[in-house]
Design goal:
Number of domains: 2
Strand content: 25-35%
Radius of gyration: 20 Å
Strand order of the largest sheet: 13-12-9-6-5-17-18-19
Structural class: alpha+beta
Number of helices: 12
Shape: globular
Number of strands: 19
Length: 367
């Protein structure tokens, strides 16, 4: 086994979710391609005194279900999913795509219903996380499909994934502690501020954040970490943003996304491709047109766009915002079955001011 895989498992189990003796740890993966990491996680969980349960997904089975299921069947929520979300102490979710476009041909209405069905699971997970009774993390195992999306060879993508997780450092947990301290300085500075403004190519947007909590993502909730985020005030987003990078949601790519906000809601949305899909997601429920998250990417090991939101939202020198559901620990109140992260590159002439003071210029923090 590649020693970096075992190192990643040790970080996931002992640093990200902190498995304790007696914990029920559910280890889920989207395909069997990540079996080396799953096995390494099982070993690490056992050594920590936990009780691992593994779950292997299948892209072919999921696609077959979505193509064939009736609307009634799409609305069926598995009791196993409910049990895991409500009873497990720990969840490690591993992405390992064999085909990153496996769902590209699925009818968007079916995808929307499927997403809506999972809303209770999301609610339970977020509530328990906020209460401190549930610890989870999501990560990516390097696969050829993900490497192709990133425009890399599998060898280069391996290096990218392990570098993004600071696993190339002599002591990865210590490296994450250093990043946590750097990010905490940003969180402390932002904690009493009221408004963020972004001015850049195609963009002039104001986001209200008064009274909301900024969170330091130091690699515990998603791995890799590397962002500071908050939940915007629901009716205080105003202006326009032209996203630099394509948006990805439920296996679909939408390019050239442009959103106009008035009193916190998207009132105008356009895209260079798949605009109908963008509109369908925005119309999915009442909260889908409201920002649920606003964040700055800070991970020094991520510099390039790879068409994978897990990494792209943490690119150093970017910001991202999510339409839809708020994250409870931020104080956000928006409710939706949608949580769609979209990334904006600050490194191409953008200025970010906070309460009128320069905060970031061309992607470099100035405070």
């Amino acid at each position: 086994m590649d020693p970096r895989v075992q190192a990643m498992a040790d970080v996931l189990v002992n640093y990200c979710v902190g498995v304790k003796p007696g914990d029920w740890a559910v280890i889920e993966t989207t395909t069997a391609l990540s079996e080396p990491l799953v096995a390494a996680c099982v070993e690490s969980v056992l050594k920590a005194g936990g009780n691992p349960t593994t779950s292997f997904g299948s892209e072919m089975s999921r696609e077959t279900f979505l193509r064939t299921a009736s609307q009634e069947q799409l609305r069926f929520l598995s009791p196993l999913a409910r049990l895991s979300a409500s009873e497990a102490d720990v969840r490690i979710a591993i992405l390992a795509p064999a085909n990153t476009r496996a769902l590209a041909g699925i009818d968007s209405e079916k995808l929307a219903i499927f997403s809506k069905t999972a809303e209770p699971i999301m609610e339970t997970s977020m509530r328990r996380t906020f209460e401190g009774t549930y610890r989870w993390t999501g990560c990516q195992f390097p696969t050829s499909a993900a490497a192709q999306d990133a425009g890399m060879s599998l060898r280069d993508y391996d290096e990218f994934v392990f570098r993004a997780g600071l696993l190339d450092q002599p002591d990865p947990p210590a490296a994450w502690q250093r990043l946590r301290e750097r990010q905490q300085r940003l969180v402390d500075w932002l904690s009493d501020k009221s408004e963020v403004r972004i001015v850049g190519p195609g963009t002039d947007l104001r986001v209200g954040v008064k009274g909301r909590t900024w969170v330091n993502d130091d690699g515990h909730l998603n791995f890799p970490g590397g962002e500071v985020f908050t939940g915007p005030v629901e009716d205080e987003t105003e202006g326009v943003i032209q996203f630099t990078y394509p948006g990805y949601y439920l296996g679909r790519e939408v390019t050239g996304i442009r959103l106009v906000f008035v009193r916190g809601r998207v009132v105008e949305a356009s895209a260079s491709s798949d605009q109908d899909y963008l509109q369908q997601i925005l119309d999915l429920d009442e909260g889908a047109r409201v920002l649920g998250e606003f964040a700055f990417g800070t991970n020094p090991g991520i510099q390039e766009f790879t068409k994978n939101t897990l990494f792209d939202e943490k690119i150093s020198g970017t910001l991202h915002m999510a339409l839809g559901r708020s994250i409870p620990e931020t104080g956000g109140k928006n409710v939706s079955s949608v949580h769609w992260d979209m990334v904006y590159n600050l490194r191409q002439g953008a200025l970010v001011t906070v309460d009128g003071q320069a905060f970031s210029r061309n992607g470099e923090f100035t405070v």
